[in-house]
From TrEMBL:
Source lineage: Eukaryota, Sar, Alveolata, Ciliophora, Intramacronucleata
Assigned protein family: Belongs to the TRAFAC class OBG-HflX-like GTPase superfamily. OBG GTPase family. NOG subfamily.
Keywords linked to the UniProt accession: GTP-binding, Nucleotide-binding, Nucleus, Ribosome biogenesis
Coiled-coil segments: none
Pfam families for the chain: NOG1 (PF06858), NOG1_N (PF17835), NOGCT (PF08155)
Protein name: Nucleolar GTP-binding protein 1
């Protein structure tokens, strides 16, 4: 049993698969983890090894699965008697052991099947016979697992119920509540703890054990609510009642027996006392030293529902019966009410105190515990070896020392006189060595402007600060013109050059705006091979004729004034800013068109027809490549290979990328 199960953490048990799912898991793992291709022309030894490996791997997988199922469940002989008897009550010990025995036996049968068929494969002389033997071996193993269906189903139901059981610590301090149904047990648990137990007016609302946790004297306590008991022989009790009997018998706890003195539960006080006497033998044990029957667990008789019927209203006969029973059982009697919350703390305090005393008494009675306690309290006393007196030696200098009243008190003495450490402390500012003692108690900022002041500390900070102050003072005087500062010769030259450049920029802008667009277009370099000279000459003639046609004077082109256009009828046209911007746009458009019409990069390189043809071939090749690329768009919907064979062929399991 694993470490988690030894602490009774039954929620750690893994789910149990049914037989069909277990077969699928085993066979699919065998197929994934072993080779899958074999040929009849291989050597017979290789074929035998191939199928032997299949059978042995299936056997190993079956063993692992079945062994994990057996190991996950607790062994009834190793766990606490409380849990052993509780599982016997809930699941039937014989049925539980029988189911685990079936699973364990199946493991041995799988081993025997594997050994038999591996032995037969050694004598197989063909691939077909090896394959049939492998098929028979795996088939018999699958049939065996299929026969485990009832046992696996039962174990899965047991696992689910164990996971729902409350986590009960069998060794911690425990208060155990018991009594007839509807006497206020679950209400008491809800009042003392955060356990939300269902409370109803009908009996047997609580059908299993419920656990709540509380604190008392800085220690954790668990309170267990048990189902109600009826006064009948143990052989006639049902499973619900037997859970309470199991807890009463095996848990070392303080027993809180609830008695409904109002008798609203449907049972009289005498019937409730009779039930207490019937189960009282569960709290008794035989003293091994005196062979007498003694009470082994502390008991508290809790008289509930005193808000309905007070103790004074109970008949004297019932009072005497309760008192007599408490004296016989050495039990404490406490009154309480769940509805009015009267006496809840008293019940808790009484039960916890008597349980603590009982646990200490039990520890003291244990010889091993008593011996360890005595070892801790033993004090060794040395014995005299002779009668020689050896008084304490005090040096003469100490005896002769005279107390000097003028001695200055130390900081430690002052601290002791004023209340000790934490109450009074000497001001550490007194030890500061500063130029001026008045600075000792100044508040020095730790943070300033979101920065740590200590990060900016520098031993030469005062010298640097003085230099910065001098520099700042000098700059301030310069700004106030207190110190005359004549511009240098270099600065004067830079100012003059700046003015020249500024004028030149204005002139260029002015020329671009006033010059016609067609003229600027003709200024472009014409790169058309060996006809460059002719084009230049033609441009000059076109420029003269263009000026004559448009009637633009040189003076007005230079000054940027209004242009006069002579179109035969001597009519003048005013050009405003909008016409000027339109003309500039037309000029830019013509420039772009002229550039796009140019052929070649250099007239000298394109002087022959052979070079033209070679350049044409190169251009054709480049355009051919570009056309291939530019034809592919997002709308083409190209269908590529979604599952490349080199990536998806072979066996690809968990952590494997093996191609075969």
């Amino acid at each position: 049993m694993s470490g988690t199960i030894s602490r009774y953490n039954f929620k750690a048990i893994a789910p149990i698969p049914d037989s069909s799912k277990l077969i699928d898991v085993v066979l699919s793992k065998t197929n994934r983890k072993t080779p899958t291709e074999i040929r009849a022309n291989f050597k017979i030894t290789r074929i035998r090894r191939f199928y032997m490996r299949k059978v042995k791997y299936t056997q190993t997988t079956c063993n692992e699965k079945l062994q994990s199922i057996v190991d996950s469940f607790p062994n009834l002989d190793d766990i606490h008697p409380f849990y052993a008897d509780l599982m016997n009550v809930l699941y039937d010990r014989d049925h539980y052991k029988l189911a685990l025995g079936h699973v364990n036996k199946a493991k041995a049968i799988v081993d025997r099947i594997s050994n038999d068929y591996v032995k037969l494969m050694k004598y197989a002389d063909s691939l077909y016979r090896c394959k049939m033997l492998k098929r028979a071996a795996l088939g018999r193993m699958a049939t065996l697992l299929k026969k485990l269906k009832p046992s696996l189903g039962y174990l899965e139901e047991v696992r689910k119920h164990l996971a729902r059981l409350p986590s009960i610590n069998t060794n911690t301090r425990t208060l155990l509540i018991t009594g007839y149904p509807n006497v206020g047990k679950s209400s008491f648990l809800n009042n003392l703890t955060k356990a939300d137990v269902d409370v109803q007016s009908y009996p047997f609302t609580t059908q299993s054990l419920f656990v709540g946790h509380t604190e008392y004297k800085y220690t954790d306590w668990q309170i267990i609510d048990t189902p109600g008991l009826l006064d009948r022989p143990i052989s006639e009790r049902n499973t619900i009642e037997m859970q309470a009997i199991t807890a009463l018998a095996h848990l070392n706890a303080c027993i809180l027996y609830f008695i409904d003195i109002s008798e609203h539960c449907g049972y009289t006080i005498s019937d409730q006392i009779k039930l207490f006497k019937n189960i009282r033998k569960l709290f008794y044990t035989v003293d091994p030293d005196t062979q007498e029957t003694v009470v082994s667990k502390p008991i508290v008789l809790v008289l509930s529902k005193i808000d309905v019927t007070g103790w004074e209203e109970v008949s004297q006969e019932n009072k005497d019966l309760i008192t007599e029973t408490a004296e016989e059982s050495k039990a404490f009697v406490v009154k309480m009410s769940n509805t009015e919350k009267i006496g809840l703390d008293e019940v808790k305090q009484t039960a916890c105190d008597i349980l603590l005393d009982h646990r200490l008494t039990q520890k003291a009675k244990n010889p091993k515990k008593a011996e360890s306690i005595l070892n801790r309290v033993y004090v060794a006393t040395p014995k005299r070896k002779d009668k020689v007196e050896r008084p304490a030696h005090v040096p003469k200098t100490v005896l002769d020392q005279v107390p000097r009243p003028n001695d200055k008190k130390t900081v430690l003495e002052m601290q002791v006189e004023n209340g000790g450490a934490g109450v009074w402390s000497f001001p550490y500012q007194e030890h500061f060595l500063l130029e001026d003692d008045d600075w000792k108690y100044d508040n020095a900022p730790t943070f300033m402007g979101g920065h740590n002041v200590a990060d900016f500390y520098d031993p030469d900070i005062e010298e640097k600060l003085n230099e910065l102050e001098k520099e700042e003072e000098y700059l301030t005087k310069l700004e106030a013109a207190e110190v005359p500062d004549m511009p240098s010769e270099m600065e004067q030259m830079m100012v003059e050059e700046y003015e020249k450049v500024k004028k030149k920029i204005g002139y260029i802008k002015h020329t671009k705006i006033t010059q016609p667009a067609d003229v600027t277009g003709l200024k472009l370099r014409e790169k058309v091979g060996d006809k460059a000279d002719e084009i230049l000459e033609r441009n000059k003639q076109n420029r003269k004729s263009l000026f004559e046609i448009m009637g633009v004077s040189k003076k007005r082109r230079k000054t940027g004034e209004e242009m006069e256009v002579d179109q035969g009828d001597d009519m003048a046209m005013q050009v405003d800013k909008n016409d000027m911007s339109l003309r500039m746009k037309m000029r830019d458009r013509k420039i772009k068109f002229a550039i796009s019409r140019m052929e070649g990069a250099d007239p000298k390189k394109l002087s022959t027809k052979v070079q033209n043809k070679s350049m044409e071939r190169v251009r054709h090749k480049i355009e051919k490549k570009l056309k291939k690329v530019e034809n592919v768009t997002f709308a083409d919907r190209m269908q590529t290979t979604k599952m490349p064979k080199h990536l998806y062929s072979g066996k690809r399991g968990n952590g494997k990328t093996d191609r075969r």
